[in-house]
Amino acid sequence: MATPTIIVVEDENSLRSDMVEYLVGCGFDTVGARNGAEMDRLLSQRSASIIVLDVNLPDEDGFKIASRLRDGHGVGIIMVTARGTTVDRVVGLEIGADAYLVKPVELRELEAQVKSLLRRLNERATDSAASPPSAPETNGETDEPRWTLDPTEWSLTSPVGVRISLTSMEMKLTSLLAGQARKPATRDQISQALYNRRWNPEDRSIDTVVGRLRHKVEAAIGGAAPLKSVHGVGYVFSAPVRVLGGG
Question: What is the pTM of this model?
């Protein structure tokens, strides 16, 4: 099995060198890039399993890079920043980062995050390749096919077996909606579940998370996602869904 490739995108030379050297010492094929353009050149020459991505980069910041990586590549994303505010962390997770580290980075923590993320990515890929599409499931009360939410694998599977990997924020949102038994979750409920705070009507972050999840599901299944807006209330998962481990 090929050694996973990791790209460290960091404009601070000493920190980039330290992270690359440490991860190479851990047995990972690791290369460094000073900015998004260098990262793009590396990705044009090789595939990568994980991108370790600094937020404060010249020209194109880490949030923008993470957004386009999530749309066009199947890589894991670990964001690194000197800023440790809740807002920055929330933005990173909404964009689709799988983990978020604050400088000064403890290299052993970086190693642990990389290993954990690789394990999760490998398990998802193995399960997706080994599991044939399943027949539509039904429950005792309806003939409608059911979706399946797996909290352990952070994945949502369509009734015909299309598996969709979820980010942390997407998993929290889907878990909340799945537990509502096709009843709408209010924006305040969603805000509490995602951010542990009451909903601010001027805050559009909920719509951002919902929009990205809807786009991801529709791209995967080639049809409309069962994620609907309920005017004046919030959002609802409009199809039957089974949560694994939930009884």
Answer: 0.54
